């Protein structure tokens, strides 16, 4: 396991040390002993060992010399000191004794005064020079007897003084060997952990920067250097002056983590996670990890190719649902409660209100979050195909069936969630099969006679009134009551207008990052314009407008103005081909009007002529919207005009 180097203070301790070492050795350790007194013999020594044991001045000197190798100080107990003092008094008849050695040898000196009626002084030394000077001064003061380490006794005898060596007991040597082995184990473990930590830091794709409690950088990895374009010289610098974009000083001050921040660093957009380091509720530093947005997008692309391509992963969480209105917050709170249980959920709401976002969030917040999330739009497939998709089939079940059969979506959703969107579009026959799944939690593939148990949670959604469909016989009552255990009704955007502006700002920021466009604020007039609109397409329509505004990038000094918003909210106005000349056009319109013989048609034609076929002015004069006017022109086949803005 390793090598222990033992510096002996006296030659006669070698045998004791070797015997103790042999008694506890397991064959993995090697012992080397050397007799050394003082500091001078080891100043230029090339010490090679996993741990060193030494005592007194020698041990203190080695501890100062070695930084990477653990040094164990062979202890001197109070009993050892008293034993040496008693020997000194007995041999030399001492009335006063000086104790000379390293400071850690003085433990127990006060006890000598109390129990042995000796005058005791202590002199702390760190090398031979200090020991010689100290002993000379003691001799001048009348001291002739000293106790101490090997070096002090040797010098005292050279000066004609009496010296008694303070010998460490066998128990101290025994403990020193154990401590040396333990320290070696700890050091190697720390080295391994340090190498692992350094490898993680240097080979991770993320840039990592850390600061201490004062906000100065004390760690930076290679990726951070490469991404920022800076050098390792930033170590010790204030983070706010060299890498302020990371927000390290701010997080250190607020003690609040900042996750998913987008900033420009080194000429590129990076996503930053910055967290404080807290010890005993006090900030001890902060760490920031960042990587290019492009790298995240590329990673997402690869993940989608490998995992998401089957559509079995829910992407949204409750944190992705942005809402400010009390009505929507209430729905969000309700959905979070639904996520805690496994009961079926029925989500009602108009198109574009976010029914699937809520369904995915409920799945990801529940205990099935590690299982698959399988969505299916029941209105997108004909009945026969929908049945085979939901329940699967065996080989030869029908003409064109795949060899080996196919697993159905209910089976794929085992131990997860299946999301049945547009549940109102399922035929009555399929409703019966679905009811059996809800009741028995088992399915049977097409063409098979074997039942397969499934463990799935069902979340259904629709934009229609199921109760009205029940009354007309289009939806089964028993299926409805099986689905309608936990109901979640999502209000349209027009009923929660507090959410319009926060959502729009979020979409503008999101698409600004995606398309590498600048984020632009809305003018106050533009905000009013958004709030006055009814949003028939709900959040989906709002998102589309946000994307369109970002892509077009047309704005003035005050930001996105109301004119731009109105233009995008206005209905599409198709231009009908212009007739060869004015006369031909008028003749055709008159002919159509005469044949149609409806007063409204004649009124529309008259108004269009009077306004020189200006579509907007004509609609205003007729007291209807542009969309309504255009629909009427189509219905009455009055499409012989060129509309004007």
Q: What descriptive keywords fit this protein?
A:
645 residues; alpha/beta; Rossmann fold; Beta-Lactamase; 5-stranded antiparallel sheet; 5-stranded parallel sheet
Give an account of the 3D structure.
The chain is an alpha/beta fold and 645 residues long. It folds into six domains: 2-75 and 172-185, Response regulator (Rossmann fold); 78-167, PrpR receptor domain-like (Rossmann fold, 3-Layer(aba) Sandwich), CATH 3.40.50.10660; 204-295, PAS domain (Beta-Lactamase, 2-Layer Sandwich); 314-489, P-loop containing nucleotide triphosphate hydrolases (Rossmann fold), CATH 3.40.50.300; 494-569, Orthogonal Bundle (Helicase, Ruva Protein, domain 3), CATH 1.10.8.60; 582-635, no CATH class. It has 26 helices and 20 strands. α24 (599-610) crosses α25 (615-622). The longest helix is centred in the first third of the chain and has 34 residues, at 170-203.
Quick take:
By secondary structure, the protein is an alpha/beta fold. It has 26 helices and 20 strands. A five-stranded antiparallel sheet has the order 10-9-13-12-11. Strands 15-16-19-14-20 form a five-stranded parallel sheet. Strands 2-1-3-4 form a four-stranded parallel sheet.
């Amino acid at each position: 396991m390793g090598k222990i180097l033992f510096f002996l203070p006296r030659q006669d301790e070698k045998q004791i040390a070797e015997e103790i070492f042999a008694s506890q050795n397991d064959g993995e350790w090697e012992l080397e002993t050397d007799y050394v007194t003082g500091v001078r013999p080891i100043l230029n020594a090339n010490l090679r060992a996993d741990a060193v044991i030494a005592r007194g001045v020698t041990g203190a000197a080695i501890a100062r010399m070695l930084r990477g190798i653990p040094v164990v100080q062979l202890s001197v107990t109070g009993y050892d000191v008293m034993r040496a003092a008693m020997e000194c008094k007995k041999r030399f008849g001492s009335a006063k004794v000086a104790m000379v050695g390293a400071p850690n040898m003085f433990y127990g000196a006060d006890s000598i005064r109390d129990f042995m009626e000796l005058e005791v002084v202590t002199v702390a030394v760190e090398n031979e020079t200090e020991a010689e000077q100290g002993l000379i001064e003691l001799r001048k003061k009348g001291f002739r007897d000293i106790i101490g380490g090997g070096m002090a006794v040797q010098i005292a005898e050279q000066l004609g003084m009496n010296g008694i060596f303070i010998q460490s007991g066998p128990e101290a040597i025994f403990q020193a060997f154990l401590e040396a082995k333990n320290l070696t184990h700890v050091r190697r473990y720390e080295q391994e952990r340090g190498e692992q930590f350094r490898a993680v830091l240097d080979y991770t794709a993320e840039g990592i920067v850390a600061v201490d409690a004062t906000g100065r950088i004390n760690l930076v990895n290679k990726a951070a250097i490469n991404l920022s374009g800076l050098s390792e010289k930033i170590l010790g610098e204030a983070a706010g002056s060299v890498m302020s974009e990371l927000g390290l000083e701010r997080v250190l001050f607020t003690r609040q983590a900042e996750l998913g921040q987008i900033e420009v660093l080194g000429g590129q957009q990076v996503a930053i996670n910055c967290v404080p380091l807290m010890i005993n509720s006090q900030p001890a530093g902060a760490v920031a990890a960042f990587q290019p947005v492009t790298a995240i997008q590329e990673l997402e692309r690869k993940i989608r190719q490998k995992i998401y391509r089957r559509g079995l992963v829910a992407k949204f969480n409750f944190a992705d649902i942005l809402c400010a209105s009390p009505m929507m917050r209430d729905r969000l709170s309700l959905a979070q409660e639904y996520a805690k249980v496994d009961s079926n959920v029925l989500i009602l709401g108009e198109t574009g209100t976010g029914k699937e976002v809520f369904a995915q969030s409920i799945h990801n917040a529940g205990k099935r979050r590690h299982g698959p999330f399988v969505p299916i739009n029941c209105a997108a497939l004909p009945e026969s195909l929908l049945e085979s998709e939901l329940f699967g089939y065996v080989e030869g079940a029908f003409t064109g069936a795949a060899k080996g059969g196919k697993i159905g979506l209910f089976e794929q959703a085992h131990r997860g969630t299946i999301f049945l969107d547009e549940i109102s579009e399922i035929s009555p026959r399929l409703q019966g099969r679905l009811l059996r799944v809800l009741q028995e939690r088992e399915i049977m593939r097409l063409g098979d006679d074997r039942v397969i148990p499934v463990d799935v949670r069902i979340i259904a959604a629709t934009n229609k009134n199921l109760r009205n469909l029940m009354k007309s016989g289009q939806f089964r009552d028993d299926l409805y009551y099986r689905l309608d255990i936990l109901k979640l009704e999502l209000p349209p955007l027009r009923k929660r207008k507090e959410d319009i502006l926060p959502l729009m700002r979020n979409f503008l920021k999101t698409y600004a990052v995606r398309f590498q466009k600048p984020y632009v604020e809305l003018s106050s007039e533009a905000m009013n314009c958004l709030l006055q609109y009814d949003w028939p397409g709900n959040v989906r329509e709002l998102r589309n407008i946000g994307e369109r505004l970002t892509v077009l990038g047309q704005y003035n000094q005050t930001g996105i103005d109301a004119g731009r918003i109105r233009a995008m909210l206005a209905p599409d106005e198709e231009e009908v081909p212009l007739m060869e000349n004015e006369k031909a056009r008028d003749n055709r319109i008159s002919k159509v009007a005469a044949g149609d013989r409806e007063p409204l048609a004649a009124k529309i034609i008259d108004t269009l002529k009077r306004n020189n076929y200006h579509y907007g002015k004509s609609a205003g004069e007729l007291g209807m919207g542009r969309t309504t006017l255009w629909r009427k022109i189509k219905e009455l086949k009055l499409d012989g005009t060129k509309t004007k803005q």
